[in-house]
Amino acid sequence: MKHRSSARKWSGRALGAAFAFVAMAASAHHSFAAFFDNQKSVSVHGKVTQFHFSNPHGIIVLEVTNPDGTKTIWKGETNSPSMMARRGWTKESIKVGDTVTIDGWPARDNAPYVRIRELKGPDGKIIGKPSDLATEYKQ
């Protein structure tokens, strides 16, 4: 009888852990339309302070100097690394310290957050293949 009770306890713990993992994964992945406004466009130019080529989405953090000299930290989000690779990106596409320009769809809540449509590197050339709304809505 003890064996059966112990097995139930472990299977209950495993089930609880599985539910917690699924809940975390679901909250980490979100809908494009819930966070970004596809009817608007924004362009930001600044110095890369972080570049994360990781799941669930790639993230670029920029330090942007405003016209009055103050600085704003912007985050740019792109697709998963596998999608980015299909669009021509690599982990070495940009580096911390590079000055880049991000064009994309702004956050609905006006936060300094953008879904990247196109990224121009320090030389002004587009990195990889630009994104489109059809691709973004599949995310």
Q: Secondary-structure element order, as H and E?
A: HHEEEHEEH
CATH superfamily of the largest domain: Nucleic acid-binding proteins
Strand order of the largest sheet: 1-2-3-5-4
Mean pLDDT: 81
Describe the protein in words:
The chain is of the alpha+beta class. It has 4 helices and 5 strands; from the N terminus they run H-H-E-E-E-H-E-E-H. The protein has a 5-stranded mixed barrel. A hairpin with a 5-residue loop joins strand 2 (59-65) and strand 3. The protein is globular, with a radius of gyration of 20 Å. The model is unreliable at 14-29 (pLDDT under 50).
Chain-wise SSE layout:
Elements: H1 2-28, H2 32-35, E1 42-52, E2 59-65, E3 71-77, H3 81-86, E4 99-106, E5 113-120, H4 133-138
Parallel strand pairs: 3-5
Antiparallel strand pairs: 1-2, 1-4, 2-3, 4-5
